[in-house]
Amino acid sequence: MSSILWLNGSLIPAQEARISPFDHGLLVGDGVFETLVARAGVPFAPQMHYERLRVSCEKMGLAAMPEATYLESLAAVLEANGMTEARLRVTVTSGDGPLGSERGAAAGTHLVTAAPLKPWPPTERVCLSPWTRHENGALAGVKSTSYGENVVALADARARGYGEALLANTRGELCEGTGSNVFVVVDGVLMTPPLSSGCLAGVTRRLVLASCAAAGIPCLEQALPVSLLEHCQEAFLTSSTRDVHPIERIGPRALPCPGPVTLAVQEAFHRHGVKAAR
Fold first, then answer.
1. How far is CA 162 from the centre of its chain?
2. What pLDDT digit, counting tens, does each position of 97-139 carry?
3. What is the chain's mean pLDDT, rounded?
4. What was the pLDDT predicted at 105?
5. 3.40.50.261, 3.20.10.10, 3.40.50.970, 3.30.160.60: CATH of 124-277
6. What's the whole-number mean pLDDT along residues 255-271?
7. Of 64, 108, 199, 263, which cross-links 57 as Cys (Cβ 3.0–4.6 Å)?
8. pLDDT tens digit sequence for 197-231
């Protein structure tokens, strides 16, 4: 982890940083966050991440930091820690509050931290989670710090020997992973769940869709029955840290990995995604 972090406008050594025990982000998960990466010392797609942070804050009634402050904090944390390849985390909470669900009148907490960017294995093994995502919930599509459901689902998957869990929504449609979006190939057609499924509006998902359009690779955003996992020919995950990550196994099913469509999407993402992120 970063030895120096940015907290409410100041760079502070991690061992000296203090967040109130009454912060609502700790007490009730009343906050939002963004995870993005830096490569060669430059944050990737920072404006897209800020846009999503701002939308999440609006949906939860929180005050987002100004974009200029956000960009300055990212650069400051990278420089202070001497990091070039990093995983960056921006967290916004409502600040101090009562012990119940109601909020207090305190100013919010704004925190930016960094950690070394660790590589994923070349391919991933996923399973279907026994729990569902509520597509009509108050936090559907919000990158909230209320991540308990994701923690439990991922721990269950890891205990069973998988690296990620996929969740269906309450309608029995494929939704997303605990920290990723999912794409599948069925009869040669690339598809991904729409935002109405309850999935997060992933920044890499958005870049992949734009990259596919630029490369002439058709990709459908449509409701997908979770049963497609039983007979799709290819599948891959997307996230800020994974980029386009091929799936080699869904539960007991082995998949061609990476398949031809996945390889084409990887190439398109590396060719067009960086340009689209600027």
1. 18
2. 999 999 988 889 999 999 999 999 999 999 999 999 999 999 9
3. 95
4. 86
5. 3.20.10.10
6. 96
7. 64
8. 999 999 999 999 999 999 999 999 999 999 999 99
Q: Which amino acid is at 259?
A: G
Compute the distance between CA of residue 221 and CA of residue 259 in angstroms, rounded to an integer: 20
* Fold classification of 4-116 (topology level): D-amino Acid Aminotransferase; Chain A, domain 1 (3.30.470)
